[in-house]
Every structure is written in structure tokens, then in C-alpha cells.
Amino acid sequence: MLYRTSGQFKTTYKADQALFPVRQDAILLGFILILAWAVFPLMASEFTFQALLIPVLVYALAAMGLNILTGYAGQLSLGTAAFMGVGAYACYKLITIFPGMNIIVAILLSGVFSAGVGVLFGLPSLRIKGFYLAIATLAAQFFLVWTFEEWAWLYNYNASGAIQVPNVEMFGTMVAGPLATSTTQYYLVLAIVTVMTIVCINLTRGTQGRTWKATRDMDIAAELIGINLLKSKLTAFAVSSYIVGVAGALFVFMWRGAAEPNLFSISLSFRILFIAIIGGLGSILGNYLGAILIVALPVVLNTLPHTLGIEISSATVEHLNIMIVGALIVFFLIIEPHGLARLWALIREKLIIWPFPH
């Protein structure tokens, strides 16, 4: 009933290829944007910003970058966290070398450095693929983390070996550092993630997206029909690493406030990979659904017993949290192996043809 499509006619090819072929999809997206831009900032507490809203957006953006590479171009990568680290350290150096630089410009420029490193480590994809490419990117993960530890210039020769986000002002408002408010940081993260999402949607729906999909499905056939595999694969590594680098800068400057090299360890790479797989490879929406399940759900489960007035030890809550999240992951992958985005697509199709069972 909610997805009744009667009366929605398409008389041109352009209308048939629209981003929202069903009017209700646009209405639903508009409702979500109103919640994100107007309702949540007015109602959310400091804990909600720091534990739910900001991390979900940052992890969704990082998973989106990985999804461009793995879901659309078919190139496996286990070095996502390291490329996030490149973006974070690049942003830190830009801010410290050029104190007057706009923070948004610094965050967006940090992705350029990450893209360059991503292309460098993406060169093996021209000769190897699959499991062997995953091992090559895993080598990049360890090499880059080692570089963060040993190259003292990256952290300005700090005795602790960590980078500390300084107070950064923009238009008279503190947007980063200890003096910045969570609301301001949330709006900045939301704005950048929104722009990045729009760019990714347009890329994946256009000629470049079709090129990546052809490379993913059968690279030999793609080369036979005239697709330049060198350009296709390296473009995927560049775009993916750029997005991941921007996510890394947001990760440190708009959420963590400080970072050590071990923050960008292999466990972070696996977490982002799980978000992309559970959300649905080859889907923009899936990155947000996967981030909500992996990042937000554990926080909700941790606070639920206290909210309900149930006295449970913190260790028991943590164990139950791991068990419940793990069980849900297995459940969703059994129900729909292609991820939560595909599960939502099936539910949407059922709603469109309801009440007919076929």
C-alpha cells in the first residue's frame, strides 16, 4: 500500500532511467535527510553524537570507498585502514604546516595523497588478482603502519609517537580539536559524506561505473570489447583510496581527536570490509546499512540493559553484545547472502506488488 505505483507513468527513456523510478523512494530519502540535518542535531546528546552519529557516517564513507574498489571494480583489498591512515596523517601535516588552511580544504586534499599511495599499491592488480591481490594490499597495510611508526616527521617528532588534533577555527567557529562541539563536527562530517555519496552515485551510474562492473564481471571480455584494464583498475584504486583517505581524515579530526599508528591496524581494515560485505557489495545504500549494524547496534545493545533498569555486569553485557551481533550477522547473511541492501530491495519489491503474492 505504501509503495503503490499506479498513476506513475514514464514516457521518456530519461524518466525510465531516473535515480528514483518510484516516487516513494524520493519521499523516503527526503524524510531521512530531514532527520539527519534537522531532527538529530536538535535532539541528540553528546554521547549520541560521539558514539552513534559521527562514527556511523565515518565508517559508512570508508566502506563506500572500499565498495567502489571491491564491489564495483572487483579488486580485493585488505589495506583500507592503512589508506585511512595516509589521509589522517596527510591532513595533520597540512594543518600543521599551513595553520591558516581551511579544514575542509585540508580534509579533501588529504584524499589526494591517499589516492596516490593507493594507485602505487594498486599497480600489482595489473598482473595479479583475487587472493593474490588481497595479499599484496595486506603487505601495503603492514608497510604503511610501519611507516607511520618509524617516520617521525609524520607526527612532528612527538615523543609519544601520536598525532594530536589542534584547535581549528573556521568562520569564527571551532570545528576541530578539544574546543570544538560535537554538533559542529557532526554537521561538517554530514556535509562531506553527503557530497561524497552524491559523487559516488553519479560515478557508479555512469560510464565509469559500467566500466568497473565489466572489469569486475570478466576482465578478459571487457578488454576484448575495448576497455582499458590499466585505466579501469587504477582509476578504481585512485577513487577508492581518495574516499578512504577523506574518511581517515574525518576519523581522526572529527571524531577521535588523536591517533597512534596502531589505530590503523588490520582489525580496522577487517571491520570496514565486514561493513561492506554485510551491507551489500556493489551498493551505495548497503554501506550505511552495514555501518548501522556493525557500529551503531553494539552501542545500542550496551546501553539497553541500563535503560531498562536491568542490572548486568559490564563484562556480561560485552559478551552478550558480541554474541548478538555475531548471530545477527550470520542470520542476515543466511537470509540474503548479497547483503542488507539486497534484502531491502526484495522487501521493496514485495511492497510494490502487494497484496499480490507473485
Give a verbal description of the structure.
By secondary structure, this protein is mainly α. 70% of the residues lie in helices and 3% in strands. The chain contains 14 helices and four strands. It has helices at 13-16, 23-43, 46-72, 80-97, 103-122, 131-150, 182-205, 207-217, 219-224, 229-256, 266-279, 285-307, 314-335, 340-353; strands spanning 163-164, 168-170, 173-176, 258-259. The protein has a two-stranded antiparallel ribbon with strand order 1-4. A two-stranded antiparallel sheet has the order 2-3. Helix 4 (80-97) runs parallel beside helix 6 (131-150), helix 7 runs antiparallel to helix 10 (229-256) and helix 12 (285-307) runs antiparallel to helix 13 (314-335). The longest helix has 28 residues, at 229-256. The mean pLDDT is 88.
Quote the beta fraction: under 5%
- How helical, in percent, are the residues? over 70%
Net shape: globular
Distance between the termini: 16 Å
Catalogue the unreliable spans.
none
Biggest beta-sheet profile: 2 strands, antiparallel
Strands across the major sheet, in which order?
1-4
**Class computed from helices, strands and strand pairing:** mainly alpha
Cα Rg: 21 Å
Number of helices: 14
- Number of DSSP-assigned strands: 4
Mean pLDDT: 88
**String of helices and strands:** HHHHHHEEEHHHHEHHHH
